[in-house]
Each structure stands twice: as C-alpha cells, then as structure tokens.
Amino acid sequence: MDTFCIICLCQLTDWLSIGVDFLTGVVIAIILAYVVPKKLNDDRSLKDFFMQEFQSIKNEYNDFCKEMCLGKHDARTIKEIFKQLSLKLDDIQNVANRNLKVDINILDELSQTQVQVTRAQEINDQYEEPNITFNPTTKNLIWQRQDVFNKNIISAIASINKAKSK
Fold it and tell me: Do residues 43 and 165 touch, judged by C-beta distance below 8 A?
C-alpha cells in the first residue's frame, strides 16, 4: 500500500507540474502576444507622431524662408508667421522632451533667425510696403539660418527615433 501511495503521489506531482508549466506557458504567451506588441506599437506611434510634427514644421519653415526670399510677404505677415512657428515648435518640442526623455531645443534657432530677420534694415525701410524685398546679404543670412535649422530638426527627429518613452 505504501508503494501505491508513493506512485500516486508521484503521478499527482507530475500532473501538477505539467499543469503549472502549462499555465505559465499560457501566461507568457499572452504577454508576448498582446502586451509587448501593444507597448511597442504605442511607443512607435508616439515617436511617429512627433517625427511627423517636426517634419511638418520643417517644411512650413522652409516654405516660409523661400517666400521671404522671393519677397512675397509684408513685415507684419513675416512677424506673425515667425510667432506662429515659434508657438507650434515650442509646444511640440516641450511635449516631446517630456514624453520621450529627449533634450530637443530648436526654438533657439528659430528665435535667432526671427531676431535677425525682423531687425534687418529692409524690414524697417519697407515696413508699410505690401512685400519686403531683402538684399542678397539678408537672403544669404536667411538661407544659412535655414540650413542650421534644418540640421537641428533632422537631429531632433533622429533623437526621437532612438528615444525610449516613459
């Protein structure tokens, strides 16, 4: 009888071990199948959103620089567009820094460009004109600042892509 109880007890522990192993495998499979991909997908979606926003600001800024150099804006419009770009960039930059633990600060570049353009002699001389025509020196300055801005946006996008979200 003692050997029968030992055999039954061994079989019971084997069956319990199989059951625990099965349940553990199912839990791990559920975690790998649902939780991990969802977290990765959420992180990727967040990064994609920020990268698209920065790309959108970059495109808008580049179009604006081109239009300024072609003399398509008056002084008030130039100031207003700089203001709108600054607000957009500040918002998206702060949220990206907070959510992705990155250190993006492109607003300084935009602010420096804004100061240099709005203090240009052409703005003062042609303030009431329907379109500001910049001289070649100011246009070169705008293009140089645009190049620096674009490089910083590209670096920001790369930082976002490598970042780990909270």
Answer: yes
